[in-house]
Amino acid sequence: MSCRALFLLLSAILFAGIAPTVVRADETPANAVRAAEFRDEVLTDQQGDHRYVVFLPPGYDPSRRWPVILSLHGAGERGHDGRRQLAVGMGAIVELHPDQFPAVIVFPQVEETDERILTAWSPQNPDGRRALQMLADVEHRYSIDASRRILAGWSMGGFGVWQVAAGSEPGFWSAALSVSGGATAETASKLPAGLPLWAIHGADDRIVNPARMVQAVSAAAKSGRTVASTLVNGEGHDVWQVVFGRDEVRRWMLDPASVNPQSLDWSSKSLAGIRQQNRLPERDFRASAVIARAVAIRIGNSAFEELAHGIPQAIPRERLQGQVADIEQSITYGGATIRAGIRDITWTADLAEAQVAAVEAERLVIRVGLKNLTLHCGSGDLAGGEYEASCGPFDVVLGRRRPVWVEVSTRPRVQGGEILLTQRDIRFTIPDDNWYVTEPGWARASGPGLTPDLVKVGVVGGMYRAKARVESAVRELIPPLIERIEERLVQVPPDSLASLLWPLPTAPPRIRLIPEGIRTDSRGVSVTVGLAVEGPSTAESVAAFPTATPIVEGESQGVIVGIAPRILSSVAEVFADDPQARLDLRDAPDSALTRLGDESLLRRAAPGLAEGADDFELRTVLSLPRPFTLAPADAQGDSPTRLSLRLHAPSVLLEISRRPRDRSAAWQKCVECTLSLDQNLSVELNGDTSGRTVTMNWDANPVLHGHAKFAEGFSPSDASLNGDVLVDAFASAWREWTGNAGTTSPVDDLAVGPARLRLNAIPVRGGRIWLEFEPASR
């Protein structure tokens, strides 16, 4: 074999079939570590079996003593499955970062759903007592340091922290952390002396008024108890994510003397990194209803252009690298079998620029400009007959002078509730003046006429001859990159928008926006979106509510979103008459509404309830037997940044019940007061160059009508009923609550990296509410 023939053979073998199989960097398995454990446990008592979870940290060893944390969950995690309490609060952060919690953690679950929320964890109640029994059982069976016994809870559990701590002996708890909670003055005054308790609350909490924490801390101080408190500006009820996810808070729980709560920075800038580190995977969503075609979206080409500017910074550098499978090739030449391969191949690139545009029906084009696209080959080898050769490492570098452009023509489609860019046609050619191949750093050769220098020359020359194969290799690398862009590019409005208009004194529903249809033309993309609603109770079947929101065509070059107002009534229908959507007014977020549960008021309305007053407790539960509606209302002063809505609640039910104080019998319905309510509210868009907020204010003059009657089966000795007392009390409480219930909530930008589309207008047209997003730079 001549040297020239060998040179050509070396080139052909090493670079034939170079189109690689991509192994993405984020799919490389991490080094194995000793895993933490979440153990399912059962406590058995006279009432039956009660499930809970015990977390054992990585490296748990019974030869040493471990701190123990009793974690109390919020109202939304009540149930009997023994696992739901891990989905929100401390459990979610522990699952995300188990190595950051060097303690045994006990996760009990409140089973009762027809009792008060704010006292569910009280040691006076069955669920509170069982939680302490579970803790005692864990301390008996595991290796626990009783001098480091920690109490923590969020929301309902935050109230529980105060109640459980107040019922404990001094020294029982080494630390207590209450998040989004509070306490009565009586409870706060009973805290054990010397207990380190830290109360943290979001200043924008719409579910539990921050005043509850402030009042509890003040009451504790008046009783000589020292409680650290932190009010976090810009955070709402879900402040738990930056609390349990913060290293200083975790260290404080384990050793309160090691961290000064007042020294920490809780500014939005400092919390941004904490929130990023504790970004949680989407938890299970159990749809109770789906409202078809609830939202229409139009994304114009100017919006795509703006969002595309942010793509290079939105895709992390580590996503622009990966491995390529080894290339093996075997051929027969001159009667000898020659085997060759390139090994340890990796690739890296810089995403310099991206362009996106809808160009015609069913066609969206994405162009990406790549710089320093490098195929790094660790080594190459050849063996057969009389010859052996090896070399390495060497690089193939594209786009050193300027970006090399890859154009991907896609067809947007909705599949499985997601927008996907399908039928990709990838176009890419390498400019002759914008790529090069480096000489291998070393080479070895054996065989007649074969030298290391010849091997090096063969590698470089072979790569240049294999330009078409290199182009093919680059095309194979592009689909994963397009998937990264796809995740960020075609956006639906953030789910938070749907909860801004929730008008009731209860937690807004959890919703998910689901793309249903998509259409592309030369000016942009139109999308229809359904809205899935998760009800308070697990639904046996998913209800369907059709709407007629059309797909949007138009000249808008930004993003416009059309919302059918009736979707809120459809959402409300999911909550109507649901047992878990009932609100015991003693737990209402406002003191005006809690007065409707005052026993003296209820006995004044129904004197027959005074009989056996010392033996019976009373409660008032609010529910919506029929869904409410929220529709645009004609009002003076409306503008593109201000709209008026009218709430119509045809049936608001106040249900008054009684039960023996010793709980020897179930609640008995006594009085039903049914009301209708009509009231206007205004929604105003505000903001500056830093962002947008929506402020909702209620009209001061609601229209209320109502009547009361004794519940079926209840016959008091005194049959007089002053229904007007209840109607007037509700009217007064509702006016006071709505007068104080004006809320200002931030509206998230539609963002890709630093590129922002910001809500600029909220007009009403054609009976629909429209949200108009434009580039934030305008």
Automatic annotation (TrEMBL):
The keyword Hydrolase applies. One of its GO terms (molecular function) is hydrolase activity. Keywords: Hydrolase, Signal. Gene3D superfamilies: alpha/beta hydrolase. InterPro entries: AB_hydrolase_fold, Plant_Biomass_Hydrol_Est. It comes from the Bacteria. Residues 1-25 form the signal peptide. The keyword Lipoprotein does not apply. PANTHER family: BLL1128 PROTEIN (PTHR43037:SF1), UNNAMED PRODUCT-RELATED (PTHR43037). This is Alpha/beta hydrolase family protein. It comes from Caulifigura coniformis.
